[in-house]
Amino acid sequence: MPTLPTRTIGPFTVSAIGLGCMNLSHAYLPRPDAAEAERLLLHALDAGITFLDTAALYGFGANEELLGRSVMHRRDAFVLASKCVLGEIDGKRGLDGSPAAITRVLEDSLRRLRTDHIDLYYMHRLDPNVPIEESVGALARAVEAGKIRAIGLSEMSAATLRRAHAVHPIAAMQTEYSPWTRNPEIAVLDACAELGTGFVAFSPVARGLLAGGVGAAGVPQGDLRGGMPRFQGENLARNLELAARFRAIAEAAGCTMAQLCMAWVLSRRDFVVPIPGTTRIDHLDDLLGTFAHPVSAELLAQVDALYPPNAAAGARYAADAQAQVDTEVWDDEPLAS
């Protein structure tokens, strides 16, 4: 099996690029059939990826079930991450960070995943109705019981990270991070460095746009990205103009757009681990090709110049999704109303 470069996330040593499993079952279209999804997961392990990320939310449990039936016979080959708090409530997406809900969702996830423990278990979002200390307390008890090995947070602020860390060490913070979403640079990356918390970057290729996966026609009807302002109308047109300039930098570097994105994210801090998602084996191999195409500091600086904070046109989330996010925003960042 190939050996990829590694990085440290809390107590775990993982491949420097992990795999986000969401779009095998959830959010983005088109989705692969079950056999294709299983082949991709097994290929990821064969290619040396040792970090798989899922959540109770994804497909309302279907993504965890997919991992449970397809890769758990190789349980010792990878670090397994999943998430709670954000999930299905009465058939709809909702938040419940109460200790009782966390305990119940964890048991359901263990059953779907066909395992007796989850290595890294995140609070997917902050429930504003439950003090973070109570939610983390429930997770700490799960650590004591051996049902999870480490605790993570997702899409939360530096202040919330510090409050949580005071209850129990936080192994990882997961937040969107790419050239067009640089919010973690406001405070969270510094807080992670201070506390010894790893940082897991989701959507590191800008939800496919900076991998050349989105064109002027946008995304298919029903795709989650269609409700995000950055993928709509004039915002999308502007973002595709920037992407064309990004492509030119990648061509000058002798790599693909996706590889340039990954190189940029990996260059930010040595404790950052990106977890791109894909439904195609050739795209996964392209992402892993990042390590074979070093990018100069000069070209990475060109990416910085092209994508300063707030360069992307449009809000990151629609208003309802933004209301569930605790991350810092830039002073002049556009927000959906």
UniProtKB/TrEMBL annotation:
Keyword Transmembrane annotated: no
Highest taxon above the source species: Bacteria
Pfam families, alphabetized: Aldo_ket_red
Question: Could you tell me the keywords of this UniProt record?
Answer: Oxidoreductase
Q: Where is the NADP-dependent oxidoreductase domain?
A: 16-307
Which Gene Ontology molecular-function terms are recorded? oxidoreductase activity
| The UniProt record lists the keyword Oxidoreductase | yes
GO cellular component term, pick one: cytoplasm
Q: Which PANTHER family match?
A: AFLATOXIN B1 ALDEHYDE REDUCTASE, ALDO-KETO REDUCTASE YAKC [NADP(+)]
Q: What is this protein called?
A: Aldo/keto reductase
